[in-house]
Amino acid sequence: MKKVLLSLFIVVGMTIPSFAATTYSSAARVQEVGEKLLTSNGIPKTNIQFMVVSDTPNNSEFINNKVINVSSAELAFAGNDNETAAVVATEIGHIILGHSSKNKVISMLTTPTNTDVAPNATLQTFASNYKTTKQDKEADLVAVNLMVSAGYNPLALIVVLTKQTGTYWDTLVGRPANAEKALNVYDYISYTYPDKLKVGYGCNEYRNFLAYADTITETRKESKKLTKAYNKTYSKAKKNTAKSITKFKTRGGISGWDAVYGLLNTPVPSTTK
């Protein structure tokens, strides 16, 4: 009996290190995956560093420090390089679109000068959430392009989005987490990279998402009006995302909004003698 127990301990001891060696660490893969995303899309990786942060990523200083911050909370949902690429590519997408600089410019130009007027907190929150969702959806589509060019499966972005915790309302109506964003990615891939849908993605999150998305896409196919709107929306998105990436590269790694923000913050030369 003692020999049997000893043999079991030996087997367990041999298998534990083997299991640990195969445990995937998304944080450890960020730099290599990020560099592949950049070089595969013709964006020089020189002096660009990827950093995993615990709070909300702030990449507003990218043009100065060349650091791309990636959320550890988002990476927690990444179980392979495809999914890590989805998280990293989305942050690169925000940088390419210049969202941080755009927000700064808009704030500079729209901040009320009359401080006696109290802002409406509810309207401010609604506007902020709408802006954030809109920018996230734009960055997601740029991320899809970056992932495809680098050889990653873009459907992984849908998986990362739907792995996250949904709202109470999501659960009540039976839809996956981040359903609006995930469907936006799915529709864009369907329009721009239809062959990628045929490849699929082998996990429960993606299968559950398809069960939700299929009912929507089938309804759309039966409506000429909805189909026309879909084609118009994603035809425009396809052109805009490709154009944004091209302009980012030709400007030397800055967006148009970065350039505008830089001009607005350039001191005006004094004319006094």
Structure overview:
- Strand 1, helix 3 (62-65) and strand 2 (67-71) form a beta-alpha-beta unit.
- The chain has helices spanning 2-21, 26-40, 62-65, 72-75, 81-97, 99-110, 121-149, 155-163, 168-173, 179-192, 194-199, 204-221, 224-250, 256-264, and strands at residues 49-53, 67-71.
- With 273 residues, the chain is mostly helical.
- The chain has a two-stranded parallel ribbon.
- The model is unreliable at 1-21 and 123-130 (pLDDT under 50).
- It is built from 14 helices and two strands, in the order ααβαβααααααααααα.
- The chain has one domain.
Strand percentage lies at under 5%
User: How many β-strands, per DSSP?
Assistant: 2
Distance between the termini: 99 Å
Mean pLDDT: 84
Most strands sheet = 2 strands, parallel
Radius of gyration: 23 Å
Shape: globular
- Specify the structural class: mainly alpha
Number of domains as seen in the coordinates:
1
Would you list the SSEs in sequence order as H and E?
Answer: HHEHEHHHHHHHHHHH
Q: How many helix segments?
A: 14
Sheet with the most strands: spatial strand order: 1-2
Helix content: 55-70%
In short:
With 273 residues, the protein is mainly alpha-helical. It contains 14 helices and 2 strands, in the order H-H-E-H-E-H-H-H-H-H-H-H-H-H-H-H.
